[in-house]
Amino acid sequence: MKKTQIITTVFEYDSIDELSTEDQELVLNAKEAALRAYTPYSKFNVGAALLLENGKLVQGNNQENAAYPSGLCAERVAVFYANAQYPDVAVKTIAITSHTNGSFLESPVPPCGSCRQVLLETEDRYKQPIKVILCGERKIKIVESIKQLLPLFFDKEMLDE
Ligand code: THU
């Protein structure tokens, strides 16, 4: 038996002012998107914004449905839209924010497991890591690749073995 450890590296910031101008703009886009989410059931609004390699910004937000599982998270709405619109362009960065009860959340909200899996496939597809910015009002956490948030991941390599 051998015990191993997997280490995740997270960069933490106390204010959006500490981010680059590019990242700040992306966070503002994610916030804008959160305010347009369709969330009649949870009232939990998530906004995602992507910066693509060609400089385009793409926004997404969660879309809910009376048949609950038919809805989709903000991150996947953004990634699938980007992949549908610009299939040859890599995703460089994603910023994620959440808004509920009239204000943006103080703490950063990390993406759900399914969104992590989709972001992982997107990294693989374009052979380029995606920087993930989790933006809360009091704390911002950044990881340099979705793999930091999804250790022991399943990907297409396993299908080929
Ligand atoms: N949600 C997202 O949009 N992204 C996530 O990564 C986690 C959850 C949405 C789904 C649902 O509309 C609401 O938040 C409450 O779960």
Automatic annotation (TrEMBL):
GO terms for biological process: nucleobase-containing small molecule metabolic process; pyrimidine-containing compound metabolic process. It comes from the Bacteria. Residues 21-157 form the CMP/dCMP-type deaminase domain. InterPro entries: APOBEC/CMP_deaminase_Zn-bd, CMP_dCMP_dom, Cyt/Deoxycyt_deaminase, Cytidine_deaminase-like. Its EC number is 3.5.4.5. Keywords: Hydrolase, Metal-binding, Zinc. One of its GO terms (molecular function) is identical protein binding. One of its GO terms (cellular component) is cytosol. Belongs to the cytidine and deoxycytidylate deaminase family. This is Cytidine deaminase. It comes from Ancylomarina longa.
